[in-house]
Amino acid sequence: MPVPKQIFVCATPGEGRCGEKGGGELLERFREEISSRGHPSGLVLRNSCTRRHEEGPVVFVFPDDVWYTRVTQAEVPEIVERHLERREERRDHDTGAA
């Protein structure tokens, strides 16, 4: 039986951390997106600090072992589509945003 996929979003508060860079809003946007597609809300979880502050907000997809950095709300539908709908895997994605 396949392991269910989960999306972890870092939303740790604090100066220079993912929460300050929009991680909390990003977490809610992921929850809204998966809910609108009929997936259970438990597929999106708040991640503990990844210590990748300079790359935040950071998103991790399990069990694909895929990391997304500098994620924006506009990218949420594409990430959900890629991992929960089409079930594709992709390694280390960086949007290149500063």
Give a short overview.
The protein has 98 residues and is α/β, with parallel strands linked by helices. It has helices at residues 23-36, 76-85, and strands at 6-10, 44-47, 59-62, 66-69, 93-94.
Classification by helices and strands? alpha/beta
Query: What is the helix tally?
Result: 2
Task: Tell me the overall shape.
Answer: globular
- How are the strands of the largest sheet arranged? 2-1-3-4-5
Q: Helix and strand string, N-terminal first? A: EHEEEHE
Please indicate the percent range of residues in DSSP E strands (runs of 2 or more). 15-25%
Estimated radius of gyration: 12 Å
The low-pLDDT segments are none
Largest sheet: 5 strands, mixed
> End-to-end distance, in Å?
40 Å
Percent helix range: 10-25%
Number of strands: 5
pLDDT averaged over residues: 87
Describe this structure as you would to a colleague.
There is one protein chain. The N and C termini lie far apart (40 Å). The protein is built from 2 helices and 5 strands. The chain is globular, with a radius of gyration of 12 Å. The protein is an alpha/beta fold and 98 residues long. The chain has a 5-stranded mixed sheet, with helices on one face.
Which features does this protein show?
98 residues, alpha/beta, five-stranded mixed β-sheet, 5 strands, globular
Question: How do the strands and helices of this protein lay out in sequence?
Answer:
Blueprint: E1 6-10, H1 23-36, E2 44-47, E3 59-62, E4 66-69, H2 76-85, E5 93-94
Parallel strand pairs: 1-2, 4-5
Antiparallel strand pairs: 1-3, 3-4
